[in-house]
Amino acid sequence: MDILVATLRMQELALRINDDFLPVATREGLTLVTAHALWKVDPDRGDLTMSEMAAQLGCNASNATFVIKQLEARGFVERRADPADGRRTFIGLTEDGARARKRLGRALTSVSPLKALTEEQRASFVSILDVLSDRR
C-alpha cells in the first residue's frame, strides 16, 4: 500500500474518532483539547508539572495553563505549588476529575472503531502504534 494512502487513512480514522468522541466530551462540559488534557493527568501520579503537561499536549506553557484553568474551573483538577521549588506547579485530579476521566474512558471505548477488531488484531494494531510512536 502506498504510504500516502496509509497516512490518509490513518488521518481519517483519527478524525472519525474525534467526531464520535466530541459529543461525549461535550456532555462533560469539555472540548476535545480539555478532554485530552484530562486524560493526560494520571490519577496515580501527583507530581505532573505544568511544563510536562505542555510537552504532552504539544503546546507552550501559556496554552497549557489556559487548558488547565478550564479543567480547574470544572472542578476536575487542582494545581498546587511544589513545596521544594515554588517556580513549579503540580497538577492533580480531584475526585470529580477522576470520575469524569473514567466516564470519558468508558465512552471512548464504546464509540471506538477498534471494537470491530479481534483481540489479536487489536494487539497487532497496538504493536504497530508503539513502533510509530517510538519514531518521533
Structure, explained:
The protein is of the alpha+beta class and 136 residues long. It has a single domain (3-134), classed as Orthogonal Bundle (Arc Repressor Mutant, subunit A), CATH 1.10.10.10. 65% of the residues lie in helices and 12% in strands. The chain is built from 6 helices and 3 strands; from the N terminus they run ααβααββαα. It has helices at residues 3-27, 32-40, 50-57, 61-73, 95-111, 119-134, and strands spanning 48-49, 77-82, 85-93. A 3-stranded antiparallel β-sheet has the order 1-3-2. A hairpin with a 2-residue loop joins strand 2 (77-82) and strand 3. Helix 1 (3-27) crosses helix 5 and helix 3 (50-57) crosses helix 4. The radius of gyration is 17 Å and the shape is globular. The relative contact order is 0.13.
Q: Can you give keywords for this protein?
A:
65% helix; globular; alpha+beta; 6 helices; three-stranded antiparallel sheet; Arc Repressor Mutant, subunit A
CATH architecture call: Orthogonal Bundle
Order of helices and strands: HHEHHEEHH
Mean pLDDT across all residues, rounded? 92
Apparent shape: globular
Tally of distinct domains: 1
Q: Radius of gyration over alpha carbons?
A: 17 Å
| Total strands | 3
What is the CA-CA span between the terminal residues? 22 Å
Largest sheet strand order: 1-3-2
CATH topology: Arc Repressor Mutant, subunit A
CATH domain class: Mainly Alpha
Q: Helical proportion? A: 55-70%
List the total number of helices.
Answer: 6
Low-confidence stretches: none
Beta percentage is: 5-15%
Question: How many strands, what sense, and barrel or not for the largest sheet?
Answer: 3 strands, antiparallel
Structural class computed from helices and strand pairing: alpha+beta
Give the CATH superfamily. Winged helix-like DNA-binding domain superfamily/Winged helix DNA-binding domain
